[in-house]
Amino acid sequence: MESVYVPFREANSFYRNMYDLFADWTFWGVSPIPDWLAYLLAGFLIVFSVVNVVIIVTTIGTWVERRLIGRFQSRVGPNRWGPWGLLTPVADAVKLLSKEDTTPEGVDRWVFNLAPLVFITPPILVFAVIPFGKDTYIANLNIGILFIIAVTTVTTIGMFMGGWASGNRYSLFGAMRGVAQLVSYEVPMVLSIVGILLLAGSLSLVDIVEAQVIPFIFLQPLGFFIFILAISAEMNRSPFDIVEADSELVAGFHTEYSGMKWGTFQLAEFIAPFGAAAIMSTIFLKGWEGPFLPSQLWFFLKVCFFWFILLWVRATLPRLRVDQIMALAWKFLFPLSLLNLFVTAAEVLVWDDPTIGQLWAMAGINWAIAITCLIVSSRLMSDKLTTRPPLVPVPKRGGN
Amino acid sequence: MPIRTEPVTLNLGPQHPSTHGVFRMRITFDGEMILDVEPVVGYLHRGSEKLAEERTYVQVITLTDRLDYVSSMSNNLAYVLAVERLAGVTPPERAMYIRVIVAELQRIVSHLVATGFFLNDLGALATPLMYCFREREKILDLFEMLCGARITLSYMRVGGIFQDAPLEFWPALRGFLGYMPGYLDEYERLITGNEILLSRTKGVGILSGETAINCSVSGPILRASGVNWDIRKADPYDVYDRVDFDIPVGTVGDNYDRYLVRIAEMRQSLRIIEQCVQQLPDGPIKTEVPSLVRPPKGDAYGHVEAPKGELGFYLVSDGSISPYRLKIRSPSLINLTALRDMLIGCKLADMIVTFGSIDINMGEVDR
Predict the structure, then answer these.
(1) Mutate to test the interface with A, among B115, B125, B129, B346 (most CBs of A within 10 A)
(2) DSSP class of residue A285?
């Protein structure tokens, strides 16, 4: 029996310490906790704390997001409840929990009620393999990045369940768009990660962090660009938020939800950018590594940085149209990610075991390629978009 | 086996975030492509025209505030022009200048709101809307100095205006004229060259000049379609014949042109206001008219270039203290007649944007 648990116990020092705490606890000379229960308790405590930390950070994140968006929009943002409005998320939660949870007539009850759960589980599962700091992770899966890709895809099933079961045409439109968008953007996203895998030589996120002599954002600029676009699209963040496009589809797939079911959808959508930022800082920005500060704090700062970029884009850009989003994925991101993969593979082939100097040379080449590609493709895309000449009777604008 | 497909009918509105009130459309889709649109109006009908028959001529001014509640100055102006034509009253010079100033300020307000909501419909998360509302607040503060109200102003009177502008109004107006061009430049920097905006609005919702004329469309939409028609030039009222301004005219008639025309019109409005402030004479602000105006029997039509198009009031008098009949030619309703032509063949997302670019106001559509 012992042998089954060993890999788990050895996977993580936190886990091992917690296990030892339970297993070695003696009461009047006997050890009342059997081995299997000690494993279970230790695992439960770690997962419980991580899930709660994620949810609490996200809840505070909603406050930060609303305050920041308020600043972006030259207004104050929520500031009434608690100091600087810090208790606003609490008020939100109380309001959502005490709100009537309506289930419209004619919905498919099972699917309708299950959809929020299916939707919120994947973003939380992502954190299972993310290393929050040195030796701080739930599991160091040797297929970590594959796990993330597989798990995040499940979100779409929850989305489609909600959209289909609602029996509302706005929801159905939103769900259909969501599926189309996911299918399109999964391809460039995975291909942009493959470049990283070639450089790191491992699918484990811990190994990827440790393989980064210089941050992969320098070695894979094009990959990073494609990845941030693709993951915004997967999370349905602006400018790709066609799934719930509030000006078109009211709220997309969760139009018919209310109360805490709606809250669950919202929570999942607020967790997702944190998950995306965590993935990006892990695979592109050396994860937890950094001088002076504790590794966990470094990781948190990097996550906040990427999270802020995602927020900034959301507060700034208008939304693209469905066909434009699909065209962007298939006509530009897909070929670019293939090119990126090809170039990276060639470089890895040439420089088998690169020195620091060779790595920087690689970075230089990749940056040159990335900038050229982006300029060329933006020219191609904006070919027909040149601005118009002034309106016909050229206004004499001397006065103003 | 061929998969059976059928068109989807979606009932958009009357409760929908971007129908600008309680507008309803029954839309038939093929996937996301629009096959047919059937607009349904009347959810905000309050019977303003009938109510006017029960009120005195001056009391009707408050009803006109509630037509297009984003631009009540222009509504007031159109109505009092009609009454003045009916009663044969001429307002004093100073009143006419102040009327033009506030009407142009109101045009800026309305266009700011239109631009903001247009970008909101494009999905820009209310950020441009908030920027536009920032300047709108400044103008509403000016209006508050004039008459104490901010939205439903009732500032115009038959034969003049309610009261002269207070002394602190003029420095505030001059300050506004000073910084507003900078803000307009800011919008243009943020919005006009944005590639997402360009790709979403160019060539979308095209309304040809011919169709626009046939549908009797007016205002910025007509001018964006390349028709140079503006009542301020075609039938000048008040002092528009004494100021120098240009009519911006578009070339294609798509959503982007409508946006550009609105921005350009705001600049022209600033020019008009500046000239009016320079030419402003001293003197009375109101011709003596009895509070119970009894115009002679007959009819009159007063129309102005309201921010949304030609706003006309047709009044029939039977010599009593209240109108025998009031007919409102509201630009929002008539501009909507071109909607179906613009939308067929669009995508769902383009439909919302095109609808937003028409800039209707339900208070005026349903009256």
Answers:
(1) B125
(2) S
A:140-179 residues touching chain B, CB 8 A cutoff: 169-170, 173
How far is C-alpha A353 from the chain's CA centre? Answer: 31
Rg (CA), chain B: 21
Percentage above 90 pLDDT, chain A: 2
> What pLDDT score was predicted for residue A399?
42
Residues B88-112: tens digit of each pLDDT: 888 888 888 988 999 999 999 999 9
| DSSP annotation string for B159-212 | TEESSPPPTTHHHHHHHHHHHHHHHHHHHIIIIIT-HHHHHHHTTSS---HHHH
Alpha-carbon distance of B108 to B263, in angstroms, equals 9
Among candidates A170, A382, A396 on the partner chain, residue whose Cβ is nearest the Cβ of B195: A382
CA–CA min distance A39, chain B (Å)? 47
User: SS3 for B279-291, per residue?
Assistant: HCCCCCCECCCCC
Phi, psi of B325 (to 5 degrees): -155, 140
Residue B119 with chain A: CB contacts under 8 Å: 318
Tokens of A130: 């993310």
List chain A residues with CB under 8 Å of B246: 393, 395-396
CA distance B27 to B307: 28
**Band of pLDDT at residue B362, cut at 50, 70 and 90:** confident
H-run or E-run covering B25: strand B24-30
Q: Has residue A400 got a pLDDT over 80?
A: no
Q: Does B211 touch chain A (CB under 8 A)?
A: no
Q: For residue A242, how far is the Cα from the chain centroid?
A: 17
CATH code for the structural domain at B45-366: 1.10.645.10
For the segment A126-171, what is each residue's pLDDT rounded down to a tens digit? Answer: 888 888 877 777 777 788 888 888 888 888 888 888 888 888 888 8
Structural domain spans, chain A: 1-98, 103-380
Name which of B10, B123, B264 is nearest A391 (Cβ-Cβ).
B264
ipTM of the complex: 0.80
Tell me, what's the pLDDT at A4?
54
A-interface mutation test, from B127, B134, B194, B270, most A Cβ less than 10 A away: B127
Task: Tell the burial category of A329 from Cβ atoms under 10 Å away from its Cβ (0-12, 13-18, 19+).
Answer: buried
Q: Where are the domains of chain B?
A: 45-366
* Rounded CA separation A282/A259 (Å): 35
**How do B325-329 and B309-317 pair as beta strands?**
antiparallel
